[in-house]
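Worked example 2:
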Amino acid sequence: MSRVIVFDVNETLLDLRGLDPHFKEVFGDASARREWFSQVVRSALVATVTDVYSDFSTIGGAALEMTAKCHGISLTSDQRADILGAIRKLPPHSDVSESFARLRNAGLRLAALTNSTAKVVEAQLENAGLYDYFEQVLSADWVHRLKPAAEPYRMAAQRLGVGMADLRMVAAHDWDIIGALRAGCAAAFVARPGMVLDPLAEQPDIIGADLSAVADRILQVEGQAGC
């Protein structure tokens, strides 16, 4: 039996550069978007390690306030709503649709697993035209533990009706890859620009420069597994 292929969403599938015009308008510099998302990830990891849960949208809003404070900016409610609302309308990376079509045409099961709340990710995937590719769209919010904690991966396997080893996590973040591997899943790393794997951690058996290359390897590996 082939594994279920489970995809992270933000940065792996959706292009956060879609937020750059909003950050440039508010901060005067689009690079503030990278500062913000780095703070989102740090805050999420701290919440997970210290076991004090906040949902990803709440963390994103708090990180935006922190980024603004670092820049000496007092956000208006409209500016805050403009940036955070735009998260739901991110465009997909250019390689996503054709990669998904090939994977689905090969008969592979596809799902999504994100730290975002269900309401946000459903809007994101609908707006990006990707929602119908997925058998299930899963949120770590349902277990009140964010990736890379083991609970979201276990929840995904349970809801998809497979064992941990029969789930392959596809992500552009090293921490998501590490979390999946240490939870007992397989993984595939999408090396989006600026994304690298941690040399101190376990390495996935599939690594590609983009999703198209990763899809090629998944079709090879999982096609063999399904024979």
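DSSP finds nine helices and six strands in the chain. The chain has a mean pLDDT of 96.
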